[in-house]
């Protein structure tokens, strides 16, 4: 069976090469996925001109169509976001809005093209909000056809009202490391099941 692939859409607000806690945790997730024979790549969305809108292609200069090609080629989509004001980033919201166009894209049997693809969430922040952000991402990603595995997220929330970032830590907290390993194992398992036995026709 061909190797599974994963794509991280890193929705940090910081353009490359600025250090990013979101990038660190999503990279750790890709390392965990590699242990389950899943190869992965990352796109830092803010580095690209992803236009606002809900269409597959918003016209000349829109970077989303090329990113979407990578999304559609991957078995596992990882949507990674920092937490700002208790919410997912504006970049993550734009990605969700662009994914809305998938509701109009179906195969010959009426299934969304995203059916059979697994999605995970990565959330970081030195304030509360990870559970809320995961809930929003789960609902939106499921709405547009992705399947969420059990324990389909990994996150880290630092103490509120402090300036410590995930990338400032001397070591990964045990709870976050455990969540990362579980998310990777469950996503790889589910992606293989869906590849071998796709959803029925609508």
TrEMBL record:
Domain of life: Bacteria
SUPFAM superfamilies (alphabetical): Flavoproteins
Annotated InterPro entries: Flavoprotein-like_sf, FMN_Rdtase-like_dom
NADPH-dependent FMN reductase-like domain residues: 12-151
The protein, known as: NAD(P)H-dependent oxidoreductase
């Amino acid at each position: 069976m061909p190797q599974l692939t994963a794509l991280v859409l890193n929705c940090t607000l910081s353009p490359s090469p600025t250090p990013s806690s979101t990038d660190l945790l999503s990279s750790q997730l890709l390392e965990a996925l590699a242990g389950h024979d899943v190869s992965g790549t990352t796109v830092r969305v803010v580095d690209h001109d992803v236009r606002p809108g809900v269409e597959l292609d918003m016209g000349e200069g829109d970077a989303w169509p090329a990113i979407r090609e990578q999304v559609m080629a991957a078995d596992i989509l990882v949507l990674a976001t920092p937490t700002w004001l208790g919410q997912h980033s504006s970049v993550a919201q734009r990605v969700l809005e662009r994914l809305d166009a998938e509701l109009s894209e179906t195969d010959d049997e009426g299934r969304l093209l995203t059916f059979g693809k697994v999605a995970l969430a990565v959330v970081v922040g030195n304030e509360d909000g990870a559970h809320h952000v995961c809930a929003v991402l789960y609902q939106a990603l499921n709405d547009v056809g992705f399947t969420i595995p059990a324990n389909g997220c990994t996150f880290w929330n630092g103490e509120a009202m402090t300036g410590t970032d995930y990338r400032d830590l001397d070591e990964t907290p045990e709870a976050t490391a455990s969540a990362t390993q579980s998310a990777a194992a469950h996503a790889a398992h589910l992606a293989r099941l869906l590849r071998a036995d796709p959803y029925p026709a609508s």
